[in-house]
Design a protein that fits this description.
By secondary structure, the chain is of the alpha+beta class. Among the domains are: 7-94 and 313-362, no CATH class; 205-275, no CATH class. The protein is 39% helix and 17% strand. It has 14 helices and eleven strands. A hairpin with a 7-residue loop joins strand 6 and strand 7. The radius of gyration is 25 Å and the shape is elongated.
Length: 384
């Protein structure tokens, strides 16, 4: 019978280990470490994400039962207490930069394939327990963190991620992003900042977002709209010249206001610096923003970012970044096969077959049964 690596072994091949080792050396993550290397920690936490482990003890017990196969992964079984200490103290930046490297590969492929790619920007909150109140308290009753993501809808892939306490405004990490000239950025009302819009426009980027209901636009041109479309109006104008408390508006160029009736019947006002594209295209671009909401929903349902294995800021950051790395690994593995189309179905099949010696392309096939030989029966079963 042909022998295969475990499914987990094949998944880990998608990690650029040479880059990971360089990150470990750069940040001194294994300095004076005797028991649990950074690689052992990464493998253990990735196993917890992909297997759906609910606690550090679950990870310890599961990997202990698979100690032989863990050896072939080049990793060692972690003790629960040692893993907890590593999550609390080891630099989280090692895992954030590993995620950035893996996401960057997808981003470079997008740049080669598309001119003027679309990127969606949004954030989602994850609730934490009161034990994390020292760094992530939002109110007397609420403790949470935010995951800020730049997402490519064409590749269905996050391109960058930042983690902050919940009380940090969404626009703050957005302003720290590297602006890619020629990119179309789509975002919602949480990123309402005229100075940032001006920077995007100056960099040759297109943006599409919503206007607040109380924002007035000085109209200079009315454009005709198709009667059978959901576009109610298409107008060129200028945003307010002055801000209430910040002086002159830094974005003085003309903008385009498009009023759209969405599927629920609600009427929304879109704004963009693209004065030439068809209004239907602008409306469709904003509609694509829903894809990042589906991404947030998927990772919360299929990965472990609802219940955290540690309460410190370092431990929470590590768990979230490893969840995002697990997402990238699953996405790459799914793309390598054409049989299973559902992302959730593929993740569930991976979960139940994680330590089985099977090819990922054969997860829907029944497992191979070794032939029965007389050597398997020590007793003499012949008739007397």
């Amino acid at each position: 019978m042909q022998q295969h690596n475990s499914v987990f072994h094949d998944l880990l091949k998608h990690i650029p280990w040479h880059r990971f080792d360089a990150l470990v050396d750069e940040h001194g993550a294994d300095y004076r470490v005797r028991r649990l290397r950074t690689k052992d920690q990464l493998v253990a936490l990735l196993y917890g994400q992909l297997a759906g482990a609910a606690s550090l003890r679950d990870i310890e017990q599961a990997l202990s039962s698979h100690r032989g196969r863990l050896y072939h992964l080049g990793a060692r079984k972690p003790a629960r207490s040692t893993l907890a200490d590593a999550n609390a103290k080891r630099p989280w930046v090692v895992f954030s930069e590993l995620f950035a490297i893996m996401a960057g590969h997808a981003g470079r492929r997008v740049k080669r394939q598309l001119a003027g790619q679309v990127q969606l920007i949004d954030a989602t909150k994850v609730k934490l327990t009161g034990l994390s109140a020292d760094w992530a308290r939002f109110s007397d009753r609420f403790t949470a963190a935010k995951i800020h993501v730049v997402y490519d809808p064409h590749q269905a892939c996050p391109l960058s991620a930042a983690i902050t306490p919940e009380n940090v405004n969404d626009i703050t990490p957005a302003k720290a992003l590297e602006i890619v000239p020629g990119t179309t950025y789509v975002f919602d009302l949480a990123y309402y900042d005229y100075s940032w819009w001006a920077k995007l426009d100056a960099a040759g980027c297109r943006f599409v977002t919503r206007l607040k209901t109380n924002t007035t636009v000085s109209i200079v041109e009315e454009r005709s709209c198709r009667q059978d479309a959901n576009i109610l109006s298409d107008r060129i104008g200028h945003l307010p010249k002055r801000l209430r408390s910040c002086g002159p508006n830094p974005f003085a160029d003309p903008v385009r206001e498009i009023t759209v009736r969405i599927s629920t019947g609600k009427v929304i006002r879109l704004v963009t610096n693209d004065l030439d594209a068809p209004s239907e295209e602008i409306a469709e671009l904003y509609k694509r923003r829903w894809q990042i909401e589906l991404f947030f929903k998927w990772i919360k349902q299929n990965l472990k970012i609802k219940r955290f294995l540690g309460t410190s800021e370092n431990a929470v950051r590590i768990q979230i970044y490893i969840a995002l790395i697990a997402y990238l690994i699953l996405r790459l593995a799914k793309q390598a096969q054409k049989i299973i189309q559902s992302s959730s179905g593929f993740a569930k099949l991976i979960r139940v077959n994680l330590m089985h010696r099977r090819m990922i392309t054969q997860l829907l096939e029944p497992p191979e049964t070794p032939p029965i030989t007389t050597d398997q029966f020590p007793l003499n079963l012949t008739e007397t």
